Amino acid sequence: MAKATIKEVAAEAEVSTATVSRVLNDSGYVSDEIRERVLEAVAKLNYQPSAIARSLKQDKTYMIGVIVPDISNPYFMGISRGIEDAVGAEGFQLMFCSSDENPEKEGRLLQLLREKRVDAVVLATAGGNDETVKALSESGLPIVLVDRKLGTETGGAGVLDLVAEDNEEGAYRLTGRLLEEGHVRIGVVNGPARVSTGRERFEGVLRAMRERGLREQPLVYNGAFSTEDGVRAVRKFLQADPKPTAIVSLNNRMSLGVLLEIVRSGLRIPEDMAVASFGEVEAISLLRQPGFYYIDQHPYDMGTRAGEILLRRIRKERAEEGPAIEIFRNEVNRIG
Amino acid sequence: MAKATIKEVAAEAEVSTATVSRVLNDSGYVSDEIRERVLEAVAKLNYQPSAIARSLKQDKTYMIGVIVPDISNPYFMGISRGIEDAVGAEGFQLMFCSSDENPEKEGRLLQLLREKRVDAVVLATAGGNDETVKALSESGLPIVLVDRKLGTETGGAGVLDLVAEDNEEGAYRLTGRLLEEGHVRIGVVNGPARVSTGRERFEGVLRAMRERGLREQPLVYNGAFSTEDGVRAVRKFLQADPKPTAIVSLNNRMSLGVLLEIVRSGLRIPEDMAVASFGEVEAISLLRQPGFYYIDQHPYDMGTRAGEILLRRIRKERAEEGPAIEIFRNEVNRIG
């Protein structure tokens, strides 16, 4: 099936190519009779206007780039689904990319999305690309940060739109629950220091310990937010002397690894090792007597907020406004 | 930062725009001295050639569309990672899309990928789009099917490239292990009938039962390959009279749901309910005494094979050849 060209459509409808273009782009006056003839020719020849050629004219690609650090983490998929539901109805399509927590790969993806002329970018950054991100934003590309701030931003007052969680406060409360139960020797499983969520959550852990007068520093394992990192952290903690009696894991993927390795080691949760997780773990119910604290998260709602913000940016409804900052506050829950 | 144009680059380098274009596209002769001048001007002005304009000239977008039914299923993410590793080194970028097991959404995504002029498509179909897929393929767009065949294809001899698993044989062996242990009342958790993997796996279950002379039909629950479907299937089976003593779950996501709901119901695995799964379940080690049969899968290897096939198709190395068919055969494993 050879592709029909706009010339063939024009010939079939006995009009000019400019008229065909006017009908298809819904621009300029065309009589109903001519419009009908063109649309019939389009249907007859199964003409597919090239989206690329069209986007050059309209200066819009209707594509939104979404870069997340781990495309298989249900948390980031929840965010993506929220974005998709917010922007899909307006005809925008998401292009998902995974940086795999690799700043260098993220840099290449940002460059690629710019080249593809996406209309906007949603970024959960792996860190290390502050200059690139700011340059893209200053060149006029709308960028909404989700979950993670740039490394150079502190507090909630950055220069870019942001939808994130109150990480410090959440981790503070989560750790507080363990300390109330009498734990003093804590193992902390964290991500790389270049990622803001990890830094902020760790601050919350330290504040909780400080306020209760604990002088002892926690044991810390820094991984890359993977299940395997949780496994490795537990192995490290079990070799410590004295061992921690409780583990705070600062991301859902690592928490699954923590739980898997504790169970494999024959330890009971929470009698032998208490566990608190920033983020839910779907599989937790496989444990007969879980005894498990966790911070619930609302990735879908965060995604819809991010989608709403970038729609307004694309439409230039708030070109002159400062950054939109949305911080979600989460509760501590207990299973078992 | 206003975007530099090719005219400004040409003026800066004191050459024609055609010469700038020849340097950037590496086409036609340009002296070393001129080339250097152009590249210096490009660097100085931070000129970004538009990938869209370039792709119109080269007739290549260097984008490969990947449509999977569930982007958060680790199985499909394994396939995607394999594809990415196979094609990334050649400069191709993946555009992930999730059909959410929705044939109508899949149809829209196929149309969108065509409009975006991707160089090839990898499709794990949700079913129901056979005519669209064939029309796209006949129009010259390379399409590699992974995991799932078109509804109209039988056996391994389709018209499109295919990388899949020997589903019938795998499910036959898996079910055989349960029957050898004396189970006769089996509950089968399956996906929608429009998906080839579910149909083929169910055939394998029936063959295993038939060959052992079992007259009784299995209890069947048809869901949509989600964790929640596994939960619902167990609830249904536990209300049956008599209840099944074993469950065969024909996809990894549903298997997690099956395990969660059995544990929540206070039943022991395998004493009260034996479980066999087509596909691994990462969280299985959370069970203290699992007793669990599963078919291992090799999504990453399937992805790299699919990537290799489509690279050859894009390069037209095998334009004249018939479809490439790769079937992976899997083993039954036991935990506990």
UniProtKB/TrEMBL annotation, chains A, B:
Signal peptide: none annotated. This is LacI family DNA-binding transcriptional regulator. Keywords: DNA-binding, Transcription, Transcription regulation. One of its GO terms (molecular function) is DNA-binding transcription factor activity. SUPFAM superfamilies: lambda repressor-like DNA-binding domains, Periplasmic binding protein-like I. The keyword Transferase does not apply. The keyword Iron-sulfur does not apply. It comes from Cohnella xylanilytica. Transmembrane segments: none annotated. Pfam families: LacI, Peripla_BP_1. PANTHER family: HTH-TYPE TRANSCRIPTIONAL REGULATOR GALS, LACI-RELATED TRANSCRIPTIONAL REPRESSOR. Residues 4-58 form the HTH lacI-type domain. InterPro entries: HTH_LacI, Lambda_DNA-bd_dom_sf, Peripla_BP/Lac1_sug-bd_dom, Peripla_BP_I. CDD domains: HTH_LacI (cd01392), PBP1_LacI_sugar_binding-like (cd06267). It comes from the Bacteria.
